[in-house]
């Protein structure tokens, strides 16, 4: 993943994107990109984690432990590596950024 995606920089179309792991607990974002391909990506999609869906980060264990997310009323635990590979549209801040 490009460094700019982790930092929340604007991409070519003006959407501020960042890794799911960079969201604060309680923040939500719309999924822009999933990691990997084939079976790994298919497993995420089978759980409802698809491009365009809104996901809320509920919490995370310390030091790259599992990340708990909520989608459509269900909570899921994702490995840190998987969550880090999910790119989401950054939420708008109160200051408009």
How do the strands line up in the largest sheet?
1-6-2-3-4-5
Mean pLDDT: 84
Rg from C-alpha positions? 13 Å
For the termini, the CA-CA separation is 22 Å
Task: Compile the SSE list and pairings.
Blueprint: H1 3-7, E1 17-19, E2 28-33, H2 38-46, E3 54-60, E4 67-71, E5 74-78, H3 80-85, E6 87-89
Antiparallel strand pairs: 1-6, 2-3, 2-6, 3-4, 4-5
Describe the overall structure.
Helices cover 21% and strands 30% of the residues. The relative contact order is 0.25. The chain is globular, with a radius of gyration of 13 Å. It has 3 helices and 6 strands. The chain is an alpha+beta fold and 97 residues long. The chain has a single domain, classed as Ferrous iron transport protein A (FeoA) (SH3 type barrels, Roll), CATH 2.30.30.
List its traits.
alpha+beta, SH3 type barrels, 6-stranded antiparallel sheet, 30% strand, disordered N terminus
Summarize the structure.
The chain contains 3 helices and 6 strands. With 97 residues, it is α+β, with helices and mostly antiparallel strands.
